[in-house]
Amino acid sequence: MKTSFPKQDIKVLLLEGVSRSAVESFQRAGYSQLEYHEKALPEAELKARIAEAHIVGIRSRTQLTDEVLQQAKRLIAVGCFCIGTNQVDLGSARRLGVPVFNAPYSNTRSVAELVIAETIMLLRGVPQKNALCHRGGWTKSAAGSFEARDKVLGIVGYGHIGTQVGVLAESLGMRVIFHDIESKLSLGNARAANSLEDLLERADVVTLHVPETPATQMMIGTRELARMRKGSLLINASRGTVVDIDALAASLRSEHLAGAAVDVFPVEPKGNDDAFVSPLLGMDNVILTPHIGGSTLEAQDNIGIEVAAKLVRYSDNGSTLSAVNFPEVSLPEHPRSRRLLHIHRNVPGVLSRINELFSAGNINIDAQFLQTDSEVGYVVIDVAADEKQSGELRDRLAAIPGTLRSRVLY
Ligand SMILES: NC(=O)c1ccc[n+]([C@@H]2O[C@H](COP(=O)([O-])OP(=O)(O)OC[C@H]3O[C@@H](n4cnc5c(N)ncnc54)[C@H](O)[C@@H]3O)[C@@H](O)[C@H]2O)c1
Ligand SMILES: O=C(O)CC[C@@H](O)C(=O)O
Questions:
Q1: How many other C-beta atoms can be found within 10 angstroms of the C-beta atom of residue 395?
Q2: Is 208 touching ligand 1 by the criterion CB < 6 Å?
Q3: Which of 44, 208, 214, 279 could be a cystine partner for 238, CB 3.0 to 4.6 Å?
């Protein structure tokens, strides 16, 4: 399909070393203006680069705040090449008429496998034994080493990752309990705990799989750590803000917790050349990983293809299916029509003004799709019009009060 705004003029800014599979997907779809950066950009540079971009692709480091998004006057869509979208001000993007897409499942399995591996390593005291061996020591002893079989795994956040961890843990013979704010179908023999506190008091290993939200910020602090069983273990591969890291360090120092595995941190380096600082440094009983829960070649490859496909589909066809912040519209193509997009504030009267405009111009509407949420309305209109008419229609649509964006797609 030939788009009105030529694809070769659409600027795609890809940051944080997103998988090359994304680059190839854009190229295959006819997008040639690709700017690729291995790292997250410092804020000033990000503002300058995003001001030029029509599409931006990020991972978890780039903070797309309201202030940054306000600079992005040409931006049509954002792709988060990951699961988490907490790094984007989703409300601001919506109010600016910019849909945000992510990959909600592509790295689930990778995180779950790492958590299972860490569970076994921590239960066996491998991190501290490994560290001592590297220093020339030798602790051949069963003290403090346990099988995973029959231990209680407490999963906080029983969503895509939490449930996969539960299924894998049961295959090792672990007993699985979980806590979630939503009522969830238990997989296998997993059982819902009565509360977070109940889970913390019963689990030998607690693993966190909640998103970053206001309710999960510092969800595990001094009080919650004190509730955990003496000698128990904590795994955090969710977001760094979910755990009070100083309280965790204190709990490990006092030997209340026997160990921890931490993949995500309140402050993370912007790229591989920057220093990593944490109160957990130097603790042999802590597995520290650089936010690589979802970083396998399989996952990154799939994420690149999935998110690029969603961005291309929106750019080529107007489909917002699976956008995380936007009314979802999925559209068949009508190649013999002209397609116009209109994104507006969801206030009464906008749709009737749109339709008046077409009837006044005696333009036949072939198809119309409307979805709204509490703030935004998104209408796609396929019309029988020529190129000149559709350009004029776009300008008139843009003049309707409440309009956020209006485009001729093809
Ligand atoms: N370490 C990594 O590399 C990595 C990779 C992927 C995802 N993640 C993180 O893991 C998070 C979870 O991923 P997912 O795919 O399982 O998400 P998901 O949305 O499928 O599941 C999250 C679950 O948490 C629950 N939840 C939300 N708030 C809660 C609260 N206050 N208390 C208890 N439960 C709550 C939800 O109801 C949901 O069931 C992501 O949001 C992301 O931040 C990290
Ligand atoms: O790749 C990343 O930077 C983030 C990975 C993970 O935290 C996610 O949210 O999917």
A1: 10
A2: no
A3: 208
